[in-house]
Amino acid sequence: MNVAENRLCLLLHSVTGIDDATLAHMLAHFGSPRAFAEAGQSRWRELGLANSAARELARVLDSDRGGGQVDIEAQLAALAAVDADIVPVTDLRYPPLLRSIYDPPPLLYVRGDPALLSQAQLAVVGSRNASAAGLRAAAALAGQATAAGLHITSGLAQGIDGAAHRGALTAGGRSIAVVATGIDRVYPARHRELARELERRGCLASEFPPGMAPLRYNFPRRNRIISGLSLGVLVVEAALRSGSLITARTAMEQGREVFALPWSICHPGGAGCLRLIRDGAKMVELVQDILEELGPMYTLQQELLPARERSNPAGPELSAGQKSLLRLIGCDPVSVDELSQLSALPVARLMAELSYLELQGVVTRATGGYIRG
Q: What pairing do the DSSP bridges indicate for beta strands 175-178 and 203-206?
């Protein structure tokens, strides 16, 4: 961590009258925080900075103290306490996919390995009040996606976010949390240990300066970063009015792929997913559905992986009949009788196929029948 560079970034971020869009534009034009700071008032004004903002910026830089009520020393101490760094939009470590969106954050505050932000990611999002079936699906799909070489990106929230992060880590993969607070804070507090594990085996990122509280209006804003970092967004479970659908809409605007699970119309948390599928999202039954849709960008990521990590990315080899049977099994239990009727398989043959699928870990016996593993 370069303390001098971080101090300068914090000073620039504190100036009253310079919003994030303006700061990102100025940084991109000058090529670095230092070049921007040293350009001087006349040059800033030539590029459209208001007179009042130019004067305030000069004052902040001359005094080496934050604008408004910002305590730069306290912010630096907060960064140091969690071993966080600042990655400006001009930095080579800044993720190219995120830089390409309409409104990239001018600065990213990062704990953990910032290199992961530039690697292939799948965003997995969904309801905070998720069903048990939704939590299982999020963890399972996240784990399978990491086995295929994708990092899992989510928002550290309760419910689907937490299940996705844990599913990736349990499978031995990497996961990235984009938070809506300062990088020195963890919200919700119950995810403090998960955040520590993500710092060790992934990273956390925020566009907000240290000390920022969990303000309601910051959560929808951070969703554009979750989608902006990722090749695609998987919505596991969502109501019709939810932050997950905001993320999905933002992903579509950014040209990212959107995926959703095909819940039953009786499932209370599945209405948002069904709406997305109606509006053009890719319906997901297997992780292979995601990998096929991501196409060349996923293939490129696979070529960069060691051969041992590329082996069997989509799970066990299944016959056409087993794949057809698996499509009948979702996150709600399906009985053997129902499966026999739907598949037209004799019960003895059906049980043999179910036993194989269970041994492969793709289905699990539950009360009332079988569910996805």
A: parallel
